[in-house]
Records
---
Amino acid sequence: MRRILPALAAGSVLPLVLGGTAASAADDSGDVTVTNTETVQAKLDATGSLREARVYEQLALTGHGTATIANPVSTSGLRNLDGFGSYTVEDGRMIAQLDVDGERRVRTVSDFDGELPLGVQVTYTLDGEPVQPGDVVGRSGVLEVHYTVTNLTSREDQVTYDDGRGGTGTATATTVVPMIGQLVTTLPSSFTDVTSGQAGIAGDGRGGTRLTFQMTLFPPIGSPTAEFGYTARISDGVVPAASLTSMPVSPLDYPSFAGGSRSYASGAASGVDLTAGAIQIDDNLRRLHDGSAELLAGLVQMHDGATTLAAGLNDEAAPGAAELAAGLNARALPGARDLAAGLNDKILPGAEQLADGLSGDAVAGARRLTDGLTDQLAPGAQDLADGLNDQLAPGAKDLATGLSTRIAPGATSLASGAARLAAGLESAQTSAPALVAGLEQVDAGLARIDAGLAQLYGRIDQLPTQAQPLRDGIASLRAGIGSKAAPGAGQQPSLLYAVDALRTQLGQAGTDAQTTAGQVGQLRAGVTDPTAGLAAYTALLPAGAQAGFTQALGSIDGNLAALATGLGESATRLGTASATLARVECGLSAAALPGVCDPARPGLLEGLAGVDQGVGSLVTQVVGSVQGGVGDGDDTASDGTLRGGMNAAQAGVDQLQAGGEQLVTGIGQLGTGADDLSAGADALADGIGSAAAGSKRLSTGLGSAASGSTRLADGLGTAAAGSGTLFQGLVRASAGSRDLAAGIGTAADGSSQLASGLDDAATGSSELAVGLSAAADGSSQLADGLGTAADSTPQIVDGTKRLSDEGTSQLVASGEKTAASYGTGYAVLEAGAQRAATEGMAYGAPEGAAGATAYSIEIAGVDGGSASTLGKGLAALALFAAVGVVTTLLRRRPA
């Protein structure tokens, strides 16, 4: 009996290995499916030290035919539990040829000679003082029991993951053979005020308290070490025994952890997508930063050029043009007009009268004198004497005085002024082309500035295109989050769809767990029902065995109650997990779950939409502001744009050029007129000088004639000759006076042309001053506008750099951290699944067969007595019945 009971008790952990899938073993004939389960039963003392351990092997065969089995086992103390026959052992394998017709089981037990994958340590304190387990017996006080269960398969491995940059990252991580377990202990009714921060607490139906501790002994879902315990107030104390059941699992396939594993895989993929998108965004931001820096450098150069232009126009060109206009209007033009008026209104009429007098009266008088001397000498001698003394002599003297003292000096001054005017106009005509050429250079410079502005206008228009990859990256990130809509054929599910599906599945799993708890309740009724359950067989047992059987049924009922409680707690945790995933959905999108998510707290999807809108608005504002400030080619100064100011400046320069050309032409005309004026003035001065000399000679002659009129009779021959000479001199004087009148007329015409040319020059110089003033204002506006643009552009440069440094770079780091964290976690889970597949069994299964190993660890209690052998036997009988049911289910699972 002692050898059989442990094997039967081991059946209590078999429900933990039902996840194994049977496979066909190598057979000699027919079709036989083999499933191998190993159960390691270990007994520990009350502190967790190992006393002994056995391994129970069970082979479940189904099908029809003959199969040869080679099952790896512990050969130490190997015994057949199904009979008295023995098995052949070769190289650590049990060899058996078995005939199967339907179902067949083969069971063995042997000493466990390996290392337990779990370490257990139990410590006790009574009233705050550490004690040994035996010291608790019979005492009262506050007892605290602390369990430490450690997965001893830990080791450091190198794992790899996708780093989000197109490569892989490597990390050193702790991997284990993933183990899950449950520790159950029942405290007697003498334990009161029981508390525990880790256990599920329920009654055992007999006044005691049942504590159940769940363990997930593998990272990253759990930890290789689990610590838990309880505190109770005791009287007449004992140390209750505890049962720990555990098994290796694959976290990628085991239903309770497959969802969590997929979450790590999804998190790693999200981190990779986030990193890749953030890197693309950061690269685009850096290109935008470089373009903004180039734009800033161009604006600074344009601002410097515009400032120099404005300084030249304001400080030199505009004041010089104003002074030129002032000089022409205030001095040259009035002088030219006075000169023209004097020549036309005074000198020219006098010269014409002189010419008329000489040609008409003097010549005619000389002719008549000659005739009179010849024909009327006697009668006219007295009249001649009177005329000479009373009229001709004084008039000739006055004429000589006027010509010598007034007309001759004035003609000389006129000739000098005309010469100076011609020299000044010649100098102005020499300097004027330089002004026009300078204006052409200004116009060429303004054309280059306008071309630069047009280029700036075109290049800033490319900013939306350059920013598009940034917006595409955001759109890709938003598409990765997606919506709850199911993916189409060939499409990858979105993150939001996966989270929503996981939340729904967890909710359904909670509902299923709750339903299963109800079914366990029905199973409890099948055990304890006094008419239809196992309790109905109590009366069939011997009277001495009925109490033990009833106790065993109570233990089974307690186990089922604990299972129902655990299922209920699982349902609660699954509901909590579902609610947590609902918050995750809300974090992804505030519109994911209407009525659940707070619309006032936008999720990641809405935040990305806001970033996309902000980038679009930033690009639109930058393009609109710069293009609005630069303007089009047809803008005017009233539009307040740079190109409008440039157009106004160019128009002013065009006016300056036109005025400058007119100025050059007018100055040329003035120079020609001034040369004519100078020549006429010189001729006038010479003629007047000759006239003055002649008038003096005339005055002297007339004086002599007057004084000699008495001697007229004596000198009639001489007088006749003198009259002939006089006649000829008057003819010449008449011709000179005509030349004098013509020269003065020419001078008058030249002075009029001079006045007209100076008037045009004054008008042109005024227009030049106005144009240069407008150009100066435009250049100042241009400099100010470029200065504003240059001052504003660093905000773009700084903004893009800050957005890269403080935003996208952090986003890249966050994505890399997420990819590394979740990628490492999933890699650890994959490594654990691999280790579970290769190291999960204590000894291994036959080739081609499915296998699994479970561990049943009994931690001894201390109560000062021993348990009833009959009670243990009855408990084993009940567990044997449960083992039979489980084994049947395992064999009937489809291959």
Note: Residues 630 and 642 are 5 Å apart (CA to CA).
---
Amino acid sequence: MIARSDGEGSVMIARRIRRSAVDGARYAVLGWAACAAPLAAQDGPAPIPVNVTVDAGRPGEPVNPVWRFFGADEPNYATMKDGRTTLATLGQLAPERVYFRAHNLLTSGDGTPALKWGSTNAYREDAAGRPIYDWTIVDRIFDTYRARGIKPYVEIGFMPEALSSRPQPYQHDWRPGSGELRTGWAYPPKDYAKWEELVYQWVRHCVARYGADEVASWYFQTWNEPNLPQYYWGGTREEFFRLHDAAIRGVRRALPRARVGGPDIAGAGDDFLTAFLQHVKAAGTPTDFLSFHAKGSPSVVADAGGSHVRMGIATHLRAADHEFGQIAADPRFRRTPIVIGESDPEGCAACQGPANAYRNGTMYSSYTAAVIPRLQALAMRRGLTLDGVLSWAFEFEDQRPFAGFRQLTSAGIDLPVINVFKLFARIKGRTVPATSDGERPLDTVLRDGVRAAADIGAVAARDGDRVSVLVWHYHDDDVPGPEAAVTVRLKGLPAAFRDGAAVTELRVDPQHANSYAAWKAMGSPEAPSNEQRAKLMAAARLDPVHAGERTVVTKGVATVRFGLPRTGVTLIELTPAERARSAR
């Protein structure tokens, strides 16, 4: 049994008791309180002093929103009630720049979803073996994306029953903890020419429906994790290469300028990606982007209170760096854009269990905030171009609240992790240098994870006269820990700040933008009433902790101080005070 889950269990009441002292100290520095108790007055361990330095006068490269990719096993959830609202939220983060990847877009069936299953019935054959194409269900899925400003990251798969070289049994009987996953949908085609023609007809139809320019902005890749034969692929490596070549030929026949790539392998520490690169060079198969997956490995460890979840951020980073290394070793592909086609704390969104108890709360959100900048740093260190980091998390329709799946929303209610993506979406313009003496070195996290001192890091950007600073407080172990007393010193602020800065803070932590904590506080109802649901929706909102309060700027330098709880993520936004007054 998990004694503490998501960093919010038995410590929540104590944190609430301490909150007035912590907030008082934070707001006094920003001019938000006339008097307040100092940080040292709070109960429990002393806060961790952290100094963050931001040089707003040195704008660098444009901010790269690599976070804007998402995906799910179950494609049909997209058209259901909570799927539609979740997609709408994602589309609003970066309209026309968010991508969604889904399995089972060519799988046979009537469109009824199940865990790790979906279908569109796009392909059948008549009694004479002639193809019958039906785009009704897949059109409905893509139409739902496009109506919400989301573009498809098209996974070409899985194998229709009429084309499978081993069709029976076809639909799997997998469920969490039992059942067979790899059935008829996972096998190579019995006829590669018909497979290529299916892909050609599909893309041709998409061009007619959405327009060539639109479809040219999508990503097209073949299959999922073909280097894991026990799960997603029932053929050999060579058969996958043949499948991939045929699919890419079909795409490019229909739209010669389509963006194609792959192979979206699992980051298993093997040489599959190297073999793929050698194959596409020899075969002349177009490759506009490269894709692979990287996952962490949470576990349950014993402690004095019973047990707790320990995350595996180092496993996640090492998996990515292994694949980065294979790409960097091939001069032809060093400049090819890369998408980490699944990037998650562990490998099975539809699985539940004690090690996955991190998902509903702020362990997941703080992990996400800490891992994405590290993945960017690893790619940059190898001289590679990281285009996207895809979170394989969406929603699971008509499940009980906070059921323990890896998801962004639960029963239509935003979880803390989706609020971190809302924070990322606000970081715009150009990056500026940000250093934190509480941030663990990249090589330390890559080797050991975050098992000793906490990782309290920062990234920052400047968009004209607006400066954003994201700070996270992460640890692998889901146990109570001291808060961080963060001092952010911003220098190089432009002349527009001469009359001071308006400071807005948005926060995801055990008390803020946290529907799960609110649900537990109301007794974890299995079927929340309308009134309870309204309260959960309100608790989920990412509202400013304080908005537009003023702080002094002297010679282009401003200082902001605040307390940040363990597993918390905060975004500080500074705008010129005079402009903020004029906008009121």
Note: Confidence is low (pLDDT under 50) at residues 1-42.
